[in-house]
Amino acid sequence: MKEFSSKVIVFDMDDTLYFELDFVKSGFQAVSNYVFEKHNLCSSQIFCELMNDFVANGSGKNLNVLCDQYKEIDLKEIIDIYRFHTPNIKLPIDSEFVLTELRRKGHKLALLTDGHEKTQLHKIQSLGLEKYIDFIIRTGVFGTPKPDTNCFEMIQEKFPNCDYTYIADNPKKDFIAPEKLGWQSIRIINANGIYHKYPTPESVREITSLCEIVGLF
User: Nearest 5°: CA angle at 94, between 91 and 96?
Assistant: First the structure.
């Protein structure tokens, strides 16, 4: 049996370490404040319209729908506001506990997250993840998002000859690369997450609370 020198526990960020809905709300509020200042449109009404469309239709086209209704709003401007605002998000207590406890046990921690590189950086900074995580990778910096194996291999190069685990929420793409590389995969089921209704692959362990991680390592 292969001997490993240590464990490296790698986390996804959105809907894994915090609730992505909190970022969506923060972004919609930033957009609402902007259109109030520029166009004198009621910010609370704009926020409610964005949230109602998000609840009804999911993410992706909410800002487009808003611009279709209010022709004076420039789509590119509000996309930039949404993407690049400083998000009003906070690391949940469960995540703080898990990250602190894993570090106390001597495990190496990494973060591997998809998304626009600046957007993800602002999230990382607002959540204060730098003080917990040993190695942070934003795949947008390298142009190799999941399921590409490139960024996972970078973690292996940073921490060679270790036992690697990836913890994430999206069964459609998150576990393809780590499975190819022989990593352990753990899926957290976030009841409010985008992907909670999708089935978990048979080879992937499933948990319903991040706190369960502490008992596994």
Answer: 55
Q: Which helix (H) or strand (E) holds 179?
A: helix 176-180
SS3 187: strand
Per the structure block, which two tokens stand in for 49? 């319209």
Read off the pLDDT of residues 14-24 as tens digits, 9 standing for 90 and up: 999 999 999 99
- pTM value is 0.93
Residue whose token pair is 């997250």: 113
Q: Which of 68, 32, 73 is nearest to 50 (CA)?
A: 32
| pLDDT value of position 2 | 44
Q: How far apart are CA 172 and CA 149, in angstroms?
A: 15
CA angle 192, 84, 20 (to 5 degrees): 10
Both tokens of residue 159?
């921490």
Pairing verdict, β 135-138 and 108-113:
parallel
206 close to 187: Cβ distance less than 8 angstroms: yes
Question: What residues have CB less than 8 Å from 197, skipping those under 6 apart?
Answer: none
HSE value, Cβ hemisphere, 13 Å, CA-based, for 192:
12
C-alpha distances in Å from residue 18, one per residue of 56, 74, 125, 144: 22, 30, 13, 23
